[in-house]
Amino acid sequence: MATPRKTKKQVLFAQGNEAVVEGALLAGCTFFAGYPITPSSEIMEEMARRLPRSETGVFIQMEDEIASMGAIIGASLAGRKVMTATSGPGFSLMQEHLGYACMTEVPLVIVNVMRGGPSTGLPTSPAQGDVQQARWGTHGDHPIIVLSAASVQECLEMTVTAFNFAEKYRSPVILLLDEITAHTREKIELPLPGEHEIFNRVVPSMPPEWYKPFEDTMRGVPSMPPLGSGYRYHVTGLTHDVMGFPTQQPDEIKALIERLFRKIDQFYTDIMLVDEYLTTDAEVGVVAYGSVARSAELAVAQAREAGVNAGLLKLKTLFPFPRPFVERLARSCKTLIVPEMNMGQMSREVKRVAASLTHIRTLNRIDGQIITPSQILKAITQG
Amino acid sequence: MSDVTELIHQYLRHNKKFPHVFCPGCGHGIVLGSLIRSVHELALSKDEVVLVAGIGCSGRIAVYVDFNTVHTTHGRALTFATGIKMANPDLKVIALMGDGDAFSIGGNHLIHAARRNIGVTALVLNNSIYGMTGGQSSATTPKGAVSQTAPFGHLEKSFDLVKLASAAGANGVSRGTVFHVNMLDRLIAEAVSRPGFNLVEIMSPCFTQYGRKNKFKSAVDMFKWLKTETSPLESWEQLPPEEKAKRLPIGTFLAGQEPGLEVLYGNLRDDLAAKEQPR
User: Fold this and answer.
1) With an 8 Å Cβ cutoff, are A77 and B80 in contact?
2) For B221, phi and psi rounded to 5 degrees?
3) What's the number of domains chain A is made of?
4) Domain boundary among A135, A158, A189
């Protein structure tokens, strides 16, 4: 018997946007709808080339971002793993259907490559101005999962994670990148088949006449049959009962909204992803995400060389906010620094959970330039 | 008559609490009946039909009928329908919208769905008004008509839905009314069985929010108007120009047979797969 040949990982020199496509295809994405917008367009262009060459893949360019979201929601209801990609102005247009997807529990992934704003802003410059829009942009109370990535390799991995969370929790998942991560070219390794766990949505196993499309179960996540599979049910953005029919009964309204929150809340530990770098003995902590986390990593290393016990908490999950990790770091540090390319959107969250535990300093940049390691180092050494 | 009632009951959801939301004299229930008869006539299974509805009075029709039903957002039903059809071309996707829904807030989606020739049947229930929100002007409110937002008479022109959909590139375009029910059954059945994008404009009166403010004495009066002021397209074409302007033509305006986008995309995938086969 021949010994199996050791399979070698394929190495690519790719930008973050291309890595997102690799991650999506690896996760099983077979449907993409989008509208061109800088700096995310490479994602849709690559999807336009790749999807028609797969067995069942569908790519469609829609008339605007509202339509892109409508199309992927429809395709997801029909059983596909779906994605769209955009940037700030397009993300604003997507808020209407983001709320619809929350209410109807439709799995989907939105990649938002953040650029300077507000409005048309700085189309080709980086920013992190959409953090709170990702959390609260659509109207009404709703839970949401927001992820980020700091490197090209992470773009691939976090895209797979985004699909897994979307399917597992029947929830829209937003992957927030910034222009730097999206356009930087780096060497990445494509994972081997089976290396990443791929989660597929749970479909009902009971007979159709027993199926309750929005039933409250232990997990809080109902099973989801594709349209046309014999489970005929009603989908609506109106507040609905367990059968999916509109309701105005206070007890049914309360049960639905509370379940939507519970199905995310009770899996906090699964969803909250962070990387910790030299945090165990840190006296000055940096909390960062996206490309800023890479500047922060270098700054922390340089601070250590200069004799300052610095540490980095890199947030990969932005929402639900990784509160326990921030609190733990805040307890051991005399200062927490939150550098970000906005006027202080994530530092609001850090202050919310840790203002009473430590001193929190913000470091904000909104001039379309990256936050450099030396800027962060300066803040660290100032304590 | 009892046959018709029995047929309707086969397709209604018995686990949904009636009564329905429609006002006395509303035409929307007639459209629902017509849709059910068309689906039955075409011998489609309930599992393969997806009814995608927008927001407004017409949008509420979806909840009553035992198909796969998706009640979407205001004006965007066609975007969902496009995604569903592209994801699974075997499904019969019918989008059901109102005039404000399809042509005011959803006008952009409609012209692009028509241009793309996506294999979806669009039924636009035109009652010339925003009914559910209380009778405000829509894109099809006639010039001079009174509404809650045009209390001194509407100054704007209204859309001609048939011309708009035709110009945008729809495969099939027709217009019917809830008075001409047999014709409506036929128009819907033909639209559903034709390939590509097909639009049926259905004149469905709203007495509550439009008629009683615009000199109609009763709902019956509005149905009589549908009878007397419309002409089948074939006879309308024989009329002198000044008569043509006064009367609304009904019937089939376009009946193209171009394959839908979902078919073209499937062909593209097959072609690419054939090219990439190892020789």
Assistant:
1) yes
2) -55, -40
3) 2
4) A189
Q: How far apart are CA A372 and CA A191, in angstroms?
A: 31
- What's the CATH code of the domain at A286? 3.40.50.920
Pair (A22, A143) in one structural domain: yes
Query: Which pLDDT does position B234 carry in this prediction?
Result: 96
B 56-95 residues with CB < 8 A to A: 62-63, 66-73, 76, 78-88, 90-91
pLDDT tens, residue by residue, A67-116 = 999 999 999 999 999 999 999 999 999 999 999 999 999 999 999 999 99
Q: B3-275: what CATH class?
A: alpha beta
The domain boundary residue, chosen from A189, A204, A223: A189
Structure tokens given for B235: 């006879």
Instruction: Indicate whether A144 belongs to any domain.
Output: yes
Touching A: B residues 232-271, CB under 8 Å: 265, 268-269
CATH of the domain at A75: 3.40.50.970
pTM for this one? 0.97
Q: Could you state, in order of their start, the residue ranges of all structural domains in chain B?
A: 3-275
The CA distance from A171 to A101, in Å, is 7
A241: how many CB neighbours lie within 10 A of its CB? 18
Determine the number of helices (DSSP H) and then strands (DSSP E) in chain A: 13, 16
pLDDT of residue A242: 97
- Please give the Cα distance from B157 to B202 (Å, whole number): 19
Q: Identify from B76, B101, B120, B277 which residue to disrupt to test chain A contact, counting A C-beta atoms within 10 A and taking the largest count.
A: B76
Distance between CA A118 and CA A121 in Å, rounded? 5
Q: Does B231 touch chain A (CB under 8 A)?
A: no
Answer whether residue A258 is part of any domain.
Answer: no
Residues of A whose CB is below 8 A from B73? 70, 96-97, 100, 237
Asked whether residue A155 is domain-assigned, the answer is: yes
Q: Tell which of B45, B82, B96 to mutate to test the A interface (max A CBs under 10 Å).
A: B82
CB atoms closer than 10 angstroms to residue A261: 14
H or E segment and range at residue A76:
helix A65-77
Cβ(B38)–Cβ(B54) below 8 Å: no
Query: Which pLDDT score, from 0 to 100, does residue B277 have?
Result: 76
The answer to whether B194 and B259 are in contact (CB under 8 A) is no
**Residue A195 placed within a domain:** no
| Distance between CA atoms of residues A247 and A56, nearest Å | 37
Query: Is this prediction's ipTM beyond 0.85?
Result: yes
What are the φ/ψ torsions at residue B237 (nearest 5 degrees)?
A: -65, -25
B272 in reach of chain A (CB within 8 A): yes
Structural domain including A16 reads 11-189
Alpha carbon separation from B131 to A343, B59, B138, B210 (Å, rounded): 45, 11, 10, 8
CB distance B108–A58 less than 8 Å?
no
